[in-house]
Amino acid sequence: MRARLKQWAYAGSRVSVKKAFACFLASTGSFASAHADQWYTGSLVSPSGTTREGVLNVEPYYSYSQPLGSFDAHGRAGPASHPMQRMFSNSTLWKYGISQDFSIQLHTIVDYGWKHADGHSHGPKTGDVPFDLIYRLVRPDPKHYIPAFNLFVGMIFPTGDYKKLGDKQDGVGSGAYVFRFALTEQSTYTLPGNHELRLRVWNWFRRAVTSAKLTDVTSYGTAHGFRGRGQPGMSGQTGFSLEYGLSQKWVLAMDLARDWSNGSTLRGHDSNGNYIHKTGSAGTDWQIAPAFEYNWNPRWGVIVGSAFYFAGHNKSIQVSPQFAVNAMF
Description:
Blueprint: H1 17-27, H2 31-37, E1 56-71, E2 77-79, E3 85-99, E4 102-115, E5 125-126, E6 129-138, E7 148-157, E8 178-191, E9 195-208, E10 212-215, E11 227-231, E12 235-245, E13 250-261, E14 265-269, E15 275-279, E16 283-297, E17 300-313, E18 315-328
Antiparallel strand pairs: 1-2, 1-3, 1-18, 3-4, 4-5, 4-6, 6-7, 7-8, 8-9, 9-12, 10-11, 11-14, 12-13, 13-16, 14-15, 16-17, 17-18
């Protein structure tokens, strides 16, 4: 998303570069008033940092994933494999402000997946649950162009089904405790016309600290009779988002992010007693997620958009329309 800056032109005279730059700085000087007046829900992908002390922030996301193709090991795009994997998902964020610079957050995730004529989930399935502590390292000071910096430290708890599955579609968990942390930045700028532009930059890292005991059909792709252990590979995400205030209530948002993951490790014996030791292929993808935000007031808003995966290696090409409601109590 690009914000167009006004051009300064005067008939019959020339404006120096220094004067034009000074005009631009003057036009971006009213940070405090614009920041106080603009309402946001937050973009689709970016983490949002701390919330205000004593405030409960609840934000349920609803999404549908549809594969369009796949990227091979060399990044070449090909057709989607059939039957295609489809999924409805609900991810609800629960965040509470303990103090001015410290918040806690929890994600509850519910999935329902299916493949045409090749199995489906036995009802909605609850996935693994991430829990994070969020500490604001640097408070923002827009007048001096100082952004906010937040540190996330947390754990993903293995609450989702991952072994002894009645169907492969029931495998929504990893069975392992996964440590994760992130560093995020948020800054706000006022553009000509008193339109506010908010920038977020983030970097996630995740690493399993335990392995999972696997039995029979599991989320690691094993079959009936398998006995062994599995562990998800390291993974992460880096990205940035832009949110441009069209008006106090309407905001145009866009995320651009790169995901990466190492392959899962699998060890054990199959039903015939054969020893298996393998590591899955590493993969990457790039996604862009444009969206519109509408806010009734500073505490209630909705965002509607879609994520598009447009490049990568050993990953599927997907489109994922989604919407979320943001509420603060």
